[in-house]
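Researcher: Re-running this chain for the archive, since the previous output was lost when a drive failed. Same request as before.
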Amino acid sequence: YNLTVRSSRRRFMASCYLSASGCCRFGCTSLRRGLTQVLAARVIHSPSWEIPMNQAPKWFNVTAFIALLWNILGCIAFIADMQLSPDDITKLPEAQQALYAARPAWSVAATGIAVFGGVLGCIALLMKRKWAFALLVLSLFGIIGQDLAMFVLANSAALAGVVPVILQTVVLLVGIWLVLLSRKAITRGWLS
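Model: Regenerated structure tokens:
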């Protein structure tokens, strides 16, 4: 039998061959004991053995960081939107004024949950925590609530045109993708 033990730095190959008498090359009476001796020697002599085999790939951290920046931009836009005074709203085009007048308060709350949940979820991804999944699902529910208010109740597609529809579609797709990414990271063992 061939046993291959791989660490991140070295490869170690141990081969045990059973002879006709049942003894292996390492001088023990069973294959199992011989392999146990080889593995024990490998653990003692190499601290790199303790590196987890399910470590997240580098692209995962880069992706989580880009997603964090995306959600921070959403927070900045949300805070800027909350700081608009009634005088500022009157200076906007009529279509945007109609959107501001038509949106319910729970839609604004859903937007806040979406952007701040997304930021916290991406921070949890970077920290390699499983609770990132719950935060990103909460963020996705916020996005869905915001979209329901914008497109079903307020009919913003008719008021503002195609651009908000495209932008919110991209936001929704990114939210879904982040939930799927966090679920994949949990199943692969990248998050603890």
